[in-house]
Amino acid sequence: MSGAPVSVLSDLQxxxxxxxEPTVVxxxxxxxxxxxxxxxGRRTIRISVDxxxxxxxxxxxxxNRALSAMLDVEDPIxxxxxxxxxxxxxxRPVQRWEDFVEFSKAGYRTRIQLDxxxxxxxxxxxxxxxxxxxxILINVDGTEFNVPFDRIERANLILELExxxxxxxxxxxxxLGD
Length: 178
What we know:
Structural class: alpha+beta
């Protein structure tokens, strides 16, 4: 995919990803997604992380404190915002090309929304079949659609409980004191 986009992130999301990922990794986590909610007034920056050692509320709080301090110094966002750090959840965001490749091999159900300027159908919910040549192949009720990766505005896995547990097999319940 030389020269092709590697994520469905906006410029600000890409900048935030670059800023926060080293700290997230240093704290023993994987950065899954960077989401920005709200456009007018106060925004929310949601950072989704996962961890092979188990994601606890205490670890999320540690990541939140470290990122909050870093973002105060870097100051990449105009205006006020709230920072949230959490697990990816049962509707895990999918933002990077390599995640689409991985999840298509497993055949997960996915919800994809294309950008508002895309002509024609913008929403697809179905089984992720393949990620190849900058296209995402998705089966929606028996019909296959090729979706251009660079036009994806938002994508999430739609997991059954068992799939979520398998994907997050490393997640653990919070313990007292976390």
